[in-house]
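Morning!

As promised:
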Amino acid sequence: MIKDKKVLVVSAHAADYVWRSGGTIAKYIKHGADVHVVVLSFGIRGESAAQWKKEGATYESVRENRLEETTKAAEILGIKNIEFWDLPDYPMAPYLTEEIRDRLIRKIRTVRPDIILTHDRNGKDILNPDHNAVAEFVFECSIQANSRGVITEGLATTKQMRLFGFEPHQTELSQFVPGELIDITEVYEQKVQAMQCFQAQHHLIQYYTERANLRGNHLRRISGNQSYKYGESFSNFFPVAGEELV
Amino acid sequence: MIKDKKVLVVSAHAADYVWRSGGTIAKYIKHGADVHVVVLSFGIRGESAAQWKKEGATYESVRENRLEETTKAAEILGIKNIEFWDLPDYPMAPYLTEEIRDRLIRKIRTVRPDIILTHDRNGKDILNPDHNAVAEFVFECSIQANSRGVITEGLATTKQMRLFGFEPHQTELSQFVPGELIDITEVYEQKVQAMQCFQAQHHLIQYYTERANLRGNHLRRISGNQSYKYGESFSNFFPVAGEELV
Amino acid sequence: MIKDKKVLVVSAHAADYVWRSGGTIAKYIKHGADVHVVVLSFGIRGESAAQWKKEGATYESVRENRLEETTKAAEILGIKNIEFWDLPDYPMAPYLTEEIRDRLIRKIRTVRPDIILTHDRNGKDILNPDHNAVAEFVFECSIQANSRGVITEGLATTKQMRLFGFEPHQTELSQFVPGELIDITEVYEQKVQAMQCFQAQHHLIQYYTERANLRGNHLRRISGNQSYKYGESFSNFFPVAGEELV
Amino acid sequence: MIKDKKVLVVSAHAADYVWRSGGTIAKYIKHGADVHVVVLSFGIRGESAAQWKKEGATYESVRENRLEETTKAAEILGIKNIEFWDLPDYPMAPYLTEEIRDRLIRKIRTVRPDIILTHDRNGKDILNPDHNAVAEFVFECSIQANSRGVITEGLATTKQMRLFGFEPHQTELSQFVPGELIDITEVYEQKVQAMQCFQAQHHLIQYYTERANLRGNHLRRISGNQSYKYGESFSNFFPVAGEELV
Amino acid sequence: MIKDKKVLVVSAHAADYVWRSGGTIAKYIKHGADVHVVVLSFGIRGESAAQWKKEGATYESVRENRLEETTKAAEILGIKNIEFWDLPDYPMAPYLTEEIRDRLIRKIRTVRPDIILTHDRNGKDILNPDHNAVAEFVFECSIQANSRGVITEGLATTKQMRLFGFEPHQTELSQFVPGELIDITEVYEQKVQAMQCFQAQHHLIQYYTERANLRGNHLRRISGNQSYKYGESFSNFFPVAGEELV
Amino acid sequence: MIKDKKVLVVSAHAADYVWRSGGTIAKYIKHGADVHVVVLSFGIRGESAAQWKKEGATYESVRENRLEETTKAAEILGIKNIEFWDLPDYPMAPYLTEEIRDRLIRKIRTVRPDIILTHDRNGKDILNPDHNAVAEFVFECSIQANSRGVITEGLATTKQMRLFGFEPHQTELSQFVPGELIDITEVYEQKVQAMQCFQAQHHLIQYYTERANLRGNHLRRISGNQSYKYGESFSNFFPVAGEELV
């Protein structure tokens, strides 16, 4: 049941969690799940081309702008718990230090998620090295959070949770394969509105709007359920493990 | 819910469905599912080495023996609906004719399964060409059964069902990857008993008994649920497509 | 130069060449290329679900309908040379006989194409076994057409041509990887109109319209050329082989 | 020890066994192994382009020519047991009938090989569909020969032998990966002479001469043994299975 | 011949070398090989869950316990040369510094192994990032040890040795493919006893005991040698390169 | 047109750009392209075995020697712009610092290449970890150079350029797949002469001379153009994206 689930979303840049999982987040929140989002960086260097085109743009002005946009989008999706860790990006890998590792392990042990959503680790993003670095880093932290010998005062070891990977921008070239397709029909309008907070990236708004149709088409084709109009897809880090075939 | 499910199992040889899915079948039947099994061949040529070692063995005597064994095993698993199509094997491909195709499409449209279990199509069995031929054939028939223009008098088109692939004997060399791990703890004893009907293949009884432990270990590790003792695994022909992440 | 090229398109069913390569075909014809299309089947059994829903549909009425639609679409794309071989489909493999092989080899040697467009052979269509069978068959015929010892009275051996594979419907699950992305902006309206000839498959019209946007996005991203609005993508059967890096 | 080995080589066309395994064959024979070669076809249609360029060439004249060449090459390699099954080629698949299957199973059970050399089954030849068909066929026959229930009067079941795959012409595009690299330095001259029997394919003589150097380079690099000058490589159908790491 | 071989085993954590290669180590020692083991860490943080459950466990107490267990296991296997480098783990990557690299290169040049056994580099461990980091690190050090320009006073450059990869815990999900299967029947009891030194991980004792059966089954099936009862498997970093097919 | 192209070549060691792309470089320069080469290291530790065999070799003497050789080779190829960054190698990864990243981004933004040639990123070099590290690093820098928010005073953001990967030494084992084959017939002699500057590596001169033949054979086979005698091959980091099929 969605309502009993705790979800932790770890997003490399300011808007990744919206384009790639905004529908699923909104749906989980709507049905009562406890959703937490960590935005590792504002994507100031790598994902703010439009902002930098503005006359007189500075790191500070771009940061302000991205913070404003993503805060508004998060609100529209119903997200109450969101943190901005404000790491540098492009590249992000050198800033995923042992200190940040400790911080993410603590975050995982605080939220105690049933589900972690982050960038895809099965493939390799053909255009965005930060996404690959974050996927690997979050995976490692999840394994370490589950290990009793990794000690964080006052925070207990977690149990193995499930991890799912976001769709990258160019799926086939990034070896992304959908493991789970999720119907987001009931929250589709919310996702569209949330995406519209990022007006500077208007081509992405169209792109991810159409992608919701495309995954909706796949959902209907694979499930036989004609009521699914819009969808999102995720890779599985692990196989389904449970009591019946799904 | 398991109890509402209709399941069609298509097994290349007389014992495949037992070694590879006996636990899942028993569990589904126990919980009220409607399970149908089609055994395409008795495996007289390819999977009856022990029977052929008996003095004076003939095709007829081996067929009798395999029929007896598998009937007993099916009973132990609780299977009420089982058909033996008695095709030649080793190789089976030349006997998967258009007539047999029509027969299997009709079977699918009669049973109208939510789930089809058969041999793995994602990988390639390193030791058993019949398994590869059957996987491809069942997949094709399922697609055709779902197509309105493939007409079978008196039998309506089916909707897209889910297909899952059996574990081959040598998984890694056959590129088998578990997509779903199913707990079979509550019916484990039944599966062991069913396997014991095939005394001539005693080394396989040990093999698949230990494999149930191995998959149980994986189930516990991946789900965090310590009550899972024994398991079976299947590949997914399609991604999970539904209302929430599983 | 496009205008000097001879192109042979081999389409499994009545509309495949339109959804998957209609823009490229229209562009090549517009610029003076000599384009020939072979439609192997009308897709009566497998790709005419909507037509079969009509009261009193028969094989004949569905055939008429598909012929009419595809003829109109071909006209809109500017295709002057199109043949309908009217093979059965779903499954098509049993009808790709040695006689049909001979016919296709002769067709290749008559057209003498620089380029063959057909279904993808690098991956495996997850939902359409006919596409896989046709990809392999066309590939084989092209190799045989190029072989001097395969004798067809009055028709000379061809030279190695280039082969490209269509996008399947569910790309990632079918292991399709774009090898070449082609800008179709200038003929986009023609493709849309041609697709609208297949009103019974209206969901596919939307699907492939949006896919043209998606590939247009990828084209811009990868080429840096912002004038590319719409695109189509193809897999390469062979590497690029020539005088400079492209 | 090489001298105790029985080897069966199954070659799709008249010269494949020479280009791809001539050195290994010569070496095994030199050291006392019992080597048998089956040449399934003369490659009249697919591998005799040069012969067909001759004025007035006919199927008969090409066959004569190929038979003469390959007989001479076999002699140079020291092969005493060679059979020409004279199947049609390009395509060969339709002629790999159940009758030919029975014949090959009997051949395997007569020779009782420790090693079978044939075309690669791990990858997929990018240019030669016959090679793929033969690889699969030989693999299937080997499995069936090992099965007690596949009865051939007067010929006992074989035990699991080892299978190795030839290098295709374009290795990387055909997904060929060397599993074993064999030093052929001591018989290199013999292989060169045997290749020179196929003067019509002079470009292949150079090609496979240089490939022997290339594999020699790899042999030295991987083994550290500087006395290896020339080599051949093969894919493994199965892992190494024995008493120590090799 | 095993007796002439020098072997270096590099184990990420305290027990990896036992679970994954204990039989092969014992066999090589029994037959006179010179075996050296480097244990990079005690696995205090990542592989000591059971120890941490004990009342009042500390890093020191866990280290003591792991050292004691593994020393006893090493003794049972007959290992005379074992070093504990006591690196932190979970994660280990940040501690595989240039200093440790230099130390491992010196170790390799001191031992001068014919064979290095370590974690698998062909696949990617789905549950243990340390294993992946160690596999890559040992591979790099082996390449560097073989390079004349990497200077270590008083220690000569090594020649290319062979590298083999351990089985990970979840083989298929970690893309592990057995390259060599080694019979360990004669030392199986020793391996079981050695594993029993790790009583805290009793579920792993069963797991790797059964895995020895499973690999024994594969060994018999692939080699045809019925005397092989128990086995271990390894991936090959390089192809077999030598004088005959194995 | 080649003459309008700007090309940046990034070579891990002193001779990589010659063995792997010397023909393409010479051809591009001959036809008027603007070619810049960055040699990251002299390969003193990893690629100078022969130099280290000389009596009394020191880091300084080896550096001198490699500089002299590569300068001469560059001259023969017609290269006017070449820089030696003199990083340590074996391993190089620890020296690909944020400072070097900044330097390479500036270099890219200064040259503003249409094409970057560097080591292959699609596969994984089986024998040379430096090549893998450089491939990843150059790819990352290219992405970052194209990003407006990565600010380098006085140097404008670049547009997406094309990236191509060098052939590694052992292609199949390194998962290298040719994406583009380039005819170098007209500059072949120049490449051979350039390679001869590295007399200490005479076995590589033969190796890459023969490889040019091998790729020439592939070029003829795939293009049908018989005038192509010698070739080089490269992997594509991205699909072809343009106005027509190539």
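Chain C has one domain: 6-236.

Hope this helps with the figure draft.
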